Amino acid sequence: MQTYTVSQAAERTGWSPRMLRYLESTGLVVPERSAAGYRRYGSQELELLRGLAELRRRYEVELDDVAFVVRLRREPELRAAVESWLTGATVPAEGASEADWIEWEQRKHERLLVA
Amino acid sequence: MQTYTVSQAAERTGWSPRMLRYLESTGLVVPERSAAGYRRYGSQELELLRGLAELRRRYEVELDDVAFVVRLRREPELRAAVESWLTGATVPAEGASEADWIEWEQRKHERLLVA
DNA sequence: ACTACCTTGACACATCCGTGGTAAGGTTTG
DNA sequence: CAAACCTTACCACGGATGTGTCAAGGTAGT
């Protein structure tokens, strides 16, 4: 399959080569390496990179944030701990309706958790 | 119900009064206010504060991280976007070669970043 | 009224994050 | 071999986080 060097991947995703290396260092998008140690980005990595840029642009999500979600997947114990903290905070459950959130908003002063 | 001032809450949770104010400013733990504007922490807030300290201590979770999880709960669209990015449910780029598509098909059941 | 709290606001500071640059050296390709 | 890439390893720097402290003023309880 076709692969791309850092510069080529950068051209195609809007990131700078510098940032692609940085993203690798954070563990968010880690490409394969050639025998000589060159990074080789495949189409899947390109998509990941585009998606990441899109998340930041549209939702103002930070890299930290995405990295943390990844971490939650890797560490079920941590995930459980966070879940438990959240539910103890009486936040509407997963899959709560919009009405639930509105009501929660209205009672925010009685609640403990805001964001 | 019994309530506590910042200093009292600080004593009971291990946070400094300064940090309790900071936590309120970030929206993570927002206490009620008395008529004169004094913060009034209830037992639930104390629990939240203790839990938060525990998350940081045991898992080295940052405040940002917790705040982001809360945000994910409030914004299902964002949550879906992040989920989709995580599972690599994206397709090859525009102008991808046939080989790219084949490769993608072969690997689409894999989790690129997450177990 | 006095003391001991509380409030907001500001200044300060270490540390990280995101990002660019540059240098010294290896690889690929024409 | 020479140009044009690539690699890692640094320095730099503005902005954000997390945390303390201090000042000026309001409130509460004795």
Summarize the structure in words.
The structure is a homodimer of 115-residue chains. Chain A has six helices and two strands. Chain A has 115 residues and is mainly α. In chain A, a hairpin with a 5-residue loop joins strand 1 (32-33) and strand 2. Chain A is elongated. At the A-B interface, helix 3, helix 4 and helix 5 of A face helix 3, helix 4, helix 5 and helix 6 of B. The structure holds a DNA duplex (30 and 30 nucleotides).
Summarize the structure.
The structure is a homodimer of 115-residue chains. Chain A has 115 residues and is mostly helical.
Key descriptive features of the protein:
homodimer, 115 residues, mainly alpha, two-stranded antiparallel sheet, 6 helices, 2 strands, 3% strand, disordered C terminus, DNA-binding
Ordered list of secondary-structure elements with their pairings:
The structure is a homodimer of 115-residue chains.
Chain A: H1 6-13, H2 17-26, E1 32-33, E2 39-40, H3 43-59, H4 63-74, H5 76-88, H6 98-106
Antiparallel strand pairs in A: 1-2
The structure holds a DNA duplex (30 and 30 nucleotides).
